[in-house]
Amino acid sequence: MPSKKHEHTTPKETGQADITTLLEWEAPGRPFKKRTKQYYLTALLITLLAETILFLFSEYLLMFVIAALLFVAFALASVPPKLFKYRLSKEGIQIEDKFFLWQELYDFYFLKREGEETLHIRTEAFFPGELIVTFDKEHKEVIKKVLISFLPFREFVKLTFVERAADWLAKNFPLES
After folding, report:
1. Is the dihedral of CA 132, 121, 102, 25 positive or negative?
2. How far is CA 116 from CA 64, 86, 176, in A?
3. For domain 21-29+80-172, which architecture applies?
4. Contact indicator for 44, 70 with CB cutoff of 8 Å
5. pLDDT score at 12
6. Pairing mode, if any, of strands 21-28 and 130-134?
7. Could you tell me which of 7, 51, 82, 105 has the fewest CB atoms within 10 Å of its CB?
């Protein structure tokens, strides 16, 4: 019985465009900081105080919303993120299996949150609005050099009211020391 011959086709033969990868890396899907028991206890006590006040005013639906938010906060604080694959190419940026063309993106900047520097890429569309990308510190200059040829770089981005309020709360009322 004759053996089957494996034919190798190139992307041009199959009609696919050749996309050049400029940079590729793996990093966690979101910034993550291991929390102490003090964080969980403080958040639980604040929530119980708020729940008691809401119970006195018969705001049961709002009590449920706050309990759900506490659950989400605890889940995000206790479960480390999985590793995502990021790829910058001449056509756009790929995060896992989602691809964004350069025409769909607006600008980029770097921001430090939770002691970890992240790349923020704003999108033209309302949703998702902003891509937050984690990376290794040694990749920062290479990422910046690649992105600056496709998108404008913002050295300073004015924080929104909500971001300023969150920073003020985190600084003045820390959940852990």
Report:
1. negative
2. 32, 17, 17
3. Roll (2.30)
4. yes
5. 46
6. unpaired
7. 7
Report the sign of the C-alpha dihedral through residues 27, 107, 114, 30, in that order. negative
Encode the chain in three state secondary structure. Answer: CCCCCCCCCCHHHHCCCCCCEEEEEEEECCCCCCCCHHHHHHHHHHHHHHHHHHHHCCCHHHHHHHHHHHHHHHHHHHCCCCEEEEEEECCEEEECCEEEEHHHEEEEEEEEECCEEEEEEEECCCCCCEEEEECCHHHHHHHHHHHHCCCCECCCCCCCHHHHHHHHHHHHCCCCC
CA distances from 112 to 90, 120, 143, 161 (A): 27, 10, 16, 17
d(CA 107, CA 117): 17
Residue 75: CB partners within 8 Å, gap ≥ 6? none
Backbone angles phi, psi at 72, to 5 degrees: -65, -45
Phi/psi at 5 (nearest 5 deg)?
-90, 125
Q: What is the pLDDT of residue 162?
A: 94
Predicted confidence (pLDDT) at residue 124 exceeds the cutoff of 80 = yes
